[in-house]
Amino acid sequence: MTYPSSTERIHGVLSPVVTPFDRELRPDGERLVKHCRWLLEQGVGLAVFGTNSEANSMSVAEKIALLDTLVAAGIPPTRMMPGTAACAFPDTVELTRHAVQLGCAGVLMLPPFYYKGVSDEGLFRSYAEVIERVGDNRLRIYLYHIPPVAQVPISLPLIERLLKAYPSTIAGIKDSSGDWANTSAMLEQFQPHGLDVFAGSEAFLLRTLRGGGVGCITAAANVNPGPIAQLARSWQQPDADAQQAALNDVRAIFQQFPMIPALKAAIAHYSDDPAWATVRPPLVELDDAQRTALAQALHAADFAMPGLAA
Amino acid sequence: MTYPSSTERIHGVLSPVVTPFDRELRPDGERLVKHCRWLLEQGVGLAVFGTNSEANSMSVAEKIALLDTLVAAGIPPTRMMPGTAACAFPDTVELTRHAVQLGCAGVLMLPPFYYKGVSDEGLFRSYAEVIERVGDNRLRIYLYHIPPVAQVPISLPLIERLLKAYPSTIAGIKDSSGDWANTSAMLEQFQPHGLDVFAGSEAFLLRTLRGGGVGCITAAANVNPGPIAQLARSWQQPDADAQQAALNDVRAIFQQFPMIPALKAAIAHYSDDPAWATVRPPLVELDDAQRTALAQALHAADFAMPGLAA
Prior knowledge:
The structure is a homodimer.
Chain A: E1 12-15, H1 29-41, E2 45-46, H2 60-72, H3 89-101, E3 107-109, H4 120-134, E4 141-145, H5 147-150, H6 156-165, E5 170-175, H7 180-189, E6 196-199, H8 205-210, E7 215-217, H9 225-233, H10 240-254, H11 259-270, H12 288-300
Helix pairs in contact in A: 2-3, 3-4, 4-6
């Protein structure tokens, strides 16, 4: 396997890696390393500490410890784009600085998300404060637009202003709006100026690549990484639409359940490791009926997680 | 001035104390102590680290340091109800434990607010996890229901379940829904069972007290504490409705501006201390025109902040 050199930007498919917890709800570094190795083998990069990683249910200290564990285990930081944002900029600065010092390819950065209805000026200052305080020209920020969860959007004018002020730092964006018109506008306005656009779901992968974007960062890449990465490699082939349709079918199964517990339940099931099902509150693991229904639907669809060690 | 003994519950009017920051955006403990002293002299308690305190723009370490500064300066912890919640329970546990150990009267606790659409079961587990891990029977939790900001509500069934499971710990609630029907339901269903109901705004103070509630926790108590505390003391007097109307008039002036920057601008203006105007991003301080308009409106209404030292 070859990885891009540190001067190349990360692209393709990334997984917001789900975080395993032990019975005491402590992050389980060993299981995380194992899952990351499998994801890399399947051809996807590692957006650890994304929304689907329950990142916002972990403290900065816990995330720093996990990042150190991954790097110590030999997971290449050039394949990692950790989420580093918190509501308070000192927290964001601390974790971002650590990720940069470890050599991570980039960081995925939510806007501060507690205060609602804030201005673009305030959000610009939030990002600027972090960039200035980290003060490292290796920093590559991928903006994270996910209004259904954060409830604080990253508007097109804000992107434009950030890109103008920090052209070498603002490297890309993940659009989890679920609104293709918005992704399309980003692709037209900013991709030609060096802002790498990632779809927030593999459901938009083919359209994003056809529109000049660079890939997707998607929950489903935790469970279906190979086929998603395959489409990213072969999107110019004649069977691309058929590949996209097959990805959509798998996604539709998971979407019948709460996503994060369902991802973990599938990993628990296919690796025969029930500990994987654990989530931190406020999330709740699937109940028995949901677990059974998910497994049945996946088996009926001949779904597999090849190479996932028991 | 007398304060309730530690066996009495805190009640009346509390201020979500605005947090001063210096030019480097560091929390300014000295100015905070001074403001807290003035608030206590005016007869209001201290809900430091509330929404209006920009609490969610500060790290846990910054909040612990400020709490220590306040107590070291002689501010009585029995008059304090710090906000201690974060998205991640380890953060909430750390700050809550510290507040309990310092002898704070209680803590104001948001639900975890990043993940949206979570279940009451998940929120129950979130609170239970914190209560069990803090493991101190001195802990008094005031639930913080503020759906316009947190976007994660605390439902009536959730309150009932928490109160049943932890009757001596779940001490009260702040209702910042702005929905009187909801406050009224809390007053009817839970106040008789020992859940102290605080209105989330002085606009509902009189109605809350008449309905059996214990007071309010309100942004405006940062700037208009004396008259709000006066109504809480004299709500059974004939002039109570007139007092409420006068409070509403002052509130209406502040509501023409972004609330937190306006509170700070007023303190800066009346104490002749421009440093008070500083906010952390994503908030933005009032601009010159807004500042002038606010000052003019307050002077036209004969508004004063008596005893606020220059």
